[in-house]
Amino acid sequence: MQLSVSEYAQARGISRQRALALISSGQIKAKRIGRSWAIDQREVNHRPAISRPLSPKMARLVIGAMSNEELELDAQERHFLDRYIERLRSEASPLSLLHSWLRSRQLRVVAVAANPADIAEISSDVRVVASGISDERAGISSAREFEGYVAASALDDFLRDNLLLDSDAPNIRLHVVEHLPAAPIPLGFVIADLIDWNRPREDGRALELMEGVQWQR
After folding, report:
1. Over the stretch 55-65, which tens digit does the pLDDT of each residue have?
2. Low-confidence residues in the chain, pLDDT < 50
3. Cα separation of 78 and 217, whole Å?
4. Which stretches does DSSP call E strand in 85-199?
5. In 41-146, where does DSSP find H-type helix?
6. Pairing assessment for the beta strands 108-112 and 146-151 based on DSSP bridges
């Protein structure tokens, strides 16, 4: 379903001028039809970036710090990690900041569709690690949806073997990475994935999980 700029702005609770600015900056995808813009309805749940992404290595260190992992850091890495943590703690919009910083944790995101009856079997595939709404720490019932991480080298076979197809109404979200994280996935990934949904329920749970984080530094 396509939305006009005004419809998108109303759904997001922002001004039409702000929506046009997001289109102009490339932060939301839209296509020109005559003199008007058409925006895919799925863009409503897209959270615009407010900062540049961290390097993949630094993004992984921030995730590790959120996950209370033991980190081996040199002096420079420790300095920058401390700065990022302090900025995050003082940030008025920590979810938007984390979303912006941690985009580099993955190569890309693939959204596909599966029969809801097959989701339990899909989630048990050893080539995928559950995260986000599908991790039990999220506390979100997602029987008809699944979210997880899959290695780029296994993606094509995983999609084919599980009969996952492109769809206008996807219910499977796959974060494609170079190396598959071990299960259970570190908590920082779960928080980052919940934030990316840009939905009130997921945002609320991400904030709750962040409140319980004991930052490893």
Report:
1. 999 999 999 99
2. none
3. 7
4. 108-112, 128-130, 146-151, 172-177
5. 56-66, 75-90, 94-101, 119-123
6. unpaired
What pTM was computed for the model? 0.82
Q: Is the peptide bond before 184 cis (omega within 30 degrees of 0)?
A: yes
Residues 6+ apart with CB under 8 A from 101: 51, 53, 54, 59, 62, 84
- Euclidean distance between CA atoms 141 and 151, whole angstroms: 25
Q: Could you tell me the CA-to-CA distances from 70 to 15, 49, 61 in Å, in that order?
A: 44, 29, 10
Distance CA 161, CA 62 (A): 34
Going by the DSSP 8-state scheme, the letter that residue 47 receives in this structure is: P
Q: Tell me how far the alpha carbon of residue 141 is from its chain's centroid.
A: 18
3-state SS, residue 2: strand
